From TrEMBL:
Protein name: Phenylacetaldoxime dehydratase
Keywords, comma-separated and alphabetical: Heme, Iron, Lyase, Metal-binding
Gene3D superfamilies: 3.30.70.100
Species the sequence originates in: Gordonia lacunae
Source species, domain of life: Bacteria
Any single Pfam family the record assigns to this protein: Dehydratase_hem
Protein family membership: Belongs to the heme-containing dehydratase family.
The keyword Lyase appears for this protein: yes
Cofactor: heme b
Keyword Lyase included in the entry's annotation: yes
Molecular function (Gene Ontology), one example: lyase activity
Length: 357
């Protein structure tokens, strides 16, 4: 049995694990193995926001334009497209791209076509909103976990391999212990750190930039039933999905009370907006500790966890996974144009008295 932490990222621990050395997981799980030359990745959530069915066609056209820009030589190695309706009733379309080299992402973002489109005053008029939420964790700042071993989604698509059975799963705290940095770092933000608006004002619309802080945690937790048989589809749609939806709705609506800055349960779609039988949750948290505390105590997540334990050994085509990262404040970018003020990281960001209007 392997450690979830790859050999080149293993070091002597100063922070003890939560299980004994002879711990054995109750069922097999796997993690992605990255090429050792990959030092840092970029995860970019590129959004288009609209309100009302009458603007859907225009919003999808903007999504297709963003998707076309990803074909650039410095575009991502992998991307997917999603839709969700937020609790303000707005439609949000997101293209989520993954780069194995932040420098390539920087070249893509600053390329004339991409930069001129984002910077154009045309983005500031009309019925659509736009946003980009970008984090670039180092390889010692993220972990993955899969109940399957092929065609890895999300950041797993950047990996060139898969582990054998891993040891660090099936117990509270295992998520943290799969992150290599956890061997010697609690990955906590400072008490005085918070989200800050550094340009614009969410209440006034227009362009808004939010500064993050060290060790914001980002989780993507996915469910793919595209190839599942009827029994597994029923298991997911009748047992897992309702409880999942309840938990994610709680975080969407009450996240500020538990340290969750933003939470979205999204549906995968194609370029024409047609739904695909795959969903995932995107959660930004003040810290990994806040995420852990909610996961270990909230009834909806406990029901999800219990259900997964009951069915994990029998999964065939139902694909369940997650990825969790923390990132340095300097490796985060949160920008919004014409979005409603509760969008993403704007909801909990402090507007300073001297903020640049």
């Amino acid at each position: 049995m392997e450690s979830a932490i790859d050999s080149h990222l293993t070091c002597p621990r100063s922070i003890s694990r939560r299980v004994p050395d002879d711990y054995e997981p109750p069922f097999p799980m796997w993690v992605g193995r990255a090429d050792h030359r990959i030092q840092q990745v970029t995860m970019a959530y590129l959004g288009v926001q609209s309100s009302g069915a009458e603007h859907r066609t225009e919003a999808l056209a903007a999504v297709r334009q963003i998707a076309a820009s990803l074909e650039h030589a410095d575009g991502p190695a992998h991307h997917d497209i999603t839709h969700h309706t937020d609790n303000q009733g707005y439609d949000n379309f997101m293209i989520v791209g993954y780069w194995s080299d932040p420098s390539a992402f920087g070249r893509w973002m600053s390329s004339p076509d991409v930069d001129s489109w984002w910077s154009s005053t045309d983005r500031e008029t009309g019925p659509l909103g736009y946003f980009r939420e970008i984090v670039s964790p180092r390889v010692d700042q993220f972990e993955t976990l899969y109940a399957f071993q092929e065609q890895l989604p999300g950041v797993g698509a950047l990996m060139n391999g898969i582990s054998g059975d891993i040891n660090e799963h099936g117990y509270w705290g295992s998520m943290r212990e799969r992150i290599p940095l956890s061997q010697n770092d609690w990955m906590q933000p400072r008490r005085d750190e918070s989200l800050r608006v550094v340009h614009g004002d969410p209440a006034h619309g227009g362009r808004v930039v939010v500064a993050g802080h060290d060790n914001i945690a980002l989780i993507r937790s996915g469910q793919d039933w595209r190839e599942a048989g009827q029994a597994e589809r029923d298991l997911y749609l009748d047992e897992i999905q309702p409880t999942l939806q309840a938990g994610m709705d709680f975080l969407r609506d009450n996240g500020a009370d538990v340290g969750c800055y933003s939470n979205r349960l999204v549906q995968n779609i194609d370029l024409d907006g047609n739904p695909v039988d795959e969903t995932y949750n995107i959660g930004h948290w003040r810290s990994l500790e806040k995420l852990e505390r909610w996961a270990e105590s909230h009834p909806t997540h406990l029901r999800i966890f219990t259900t997964f334990f009951k069915v994990a050994t029998d999964l065939d085509k139902l694909r369940l996974y997650h990825e969790v990262s923390v990132a340095d404040g300097a490796s985060q970018l949160f920008e919004y144009i014409n979005c409603h003020p509760a969008t993403g990281m704007m909801r909990d960001a402090v507007v300073a008295a001297t903020v640049d209007a």
